[in-house]
Amino acid sequence: MVTSSNVQINNKDLLALKAYITAKDDVQYNNLPANMVLLDLTHSNLKQQHIEIRFFRSDTLDALRSKIYQKTGTPPAYQHLKVIGGGVCLSEIPPEYDENTKLGFFSLEHGMIIHCVDLNPHSGSKGGQYEDTSLVRKYVMSDEDYHKRKGTIRDWERTKKETDPNFSLRKHAKEHREMVEAQRQAKLGLELPQGFEYDENGKPVRIEDDTENIATKKDQILDTSDDDLPDHFKVGLRCEVQPGSRRGTILFIGKVQELGGGGHWIGVLFDEPVGKTDGTVPGGKRYFETPGNSYGGFLRAKNVEVGDFPERDIFDEDSDDEL
Description:
By secondary structure, this protein is α+β, with helices and mostly antiparallel strands. The protein has helices at 4-21, 61-72, 143-148, 153-163, 169-188, 211-222; strands at 36-43, 50-56, 79-85, 88-93, 113-118, 196-198, 204-206, 238-241, 246-254, 265-270, 296-299, 304-306.
């Protein structure tokens, strides 16, 4: 909530910051030669500004115009100059002014602005020609030229089709999405999508199988009965869960309609917050209690090993989880 007292404090902070930044403004030019002056150059057709350009008061007006020409592209004959100080135009210097006049004649001081008004009706800087990149004609490659290039997506697809006539970018994108989802399910400790299994390292991999066999496996999963669950799974037993070798205690064994897929799920209370649930499932139904979020997980029996898995001691120097 913003209050008047807060605003007052913020203003004081801003004033203090300003005072810190500008503390040496009055002495910033002390180390410059007495005959030198720093001027800012601006232009009527350009957004760019050239800050603190060094001149000597003994330099001529021609030197100033040459510098402006170098920075902006406007020839001296088309430069109408305005000397601006404190936001006020102090004097104007038309193109026909004597070019041998010394800059000191104009009483220039540090920080003043020399603004150039470009009088050339055909100036190259007019209309944003020097700054607006949208006006630059871009190179557009023809489809035929792109098809000939190596190292492109099209070339990669063409190479893939040489080894797999059924390959397509759409198929590749679909398989990539499926793999990402399988990895997500593995991280959550849930059943992998059909067509995936864990390898020897506990990572999800695609099962290279035909559609008929996959469908058969799916039917087998959906038809899972109570007899499919190993007898040694009991509520209250200690266990270790893959992937991740996470340890905990079994608090639930049974079917969970909200998760789908049929069959039994093992509800595990982890020793540490390494799970993805607090004992509830999507929809809010609770199957077991946990001391907090991320202490629970629902897993398939194949990912759970029951045995003597005591809670790890983080101060145990002989722990296998630390080198």
